[in-house]
Amino acid sequence: MAAGTKEDPWELTTAPGTSTYTMYSDDEADPPALVCRVGSTTLKYHLGAIDDLHAWLKEQGDWVPLGAADEQKPAAEGTVEAWGRSESNPVGGWYGLRKGYRGRFGMYLPPLLEQLGLAELTHDARNNRMRAL
Fold this sequence. Notes:
- By secondary structure, the protein is an alpha+beta fold.
- It is built from three helices and seven strands.
- The protein has a four-stranded antiparallel sheet with strand order 1-2-3-4, with helices on one face. Strands 5-7-6 form a three-stranded antiparallel sheet.
């Protein structure tokens, strides 16, 4: 498995298998960040999102819909995407760090948790879900 560094990023595929992207941790960023590269687009999320999402999934105790959505669109209640924006999550709002690109938490974080062995993910064409391992 990749080291998850800029030089050796995680190579991931979205849950439906339609897009590939890379992610790596940047401990030197302020705040420390997960850097997600999708084509020429760069998104950034709080690095703590990995542990926080895993803990939240464990609390849910069952499958949770991903519900990926762009920042400008509302997230369906009870989804990973909605939790990633909620004022009740550990960061008190958006895990996304780059204004205009803060959404898609439910698209890009779940495959990383699966690769790290922290979660199980469905891989259907639509309406994917995940649960903690």
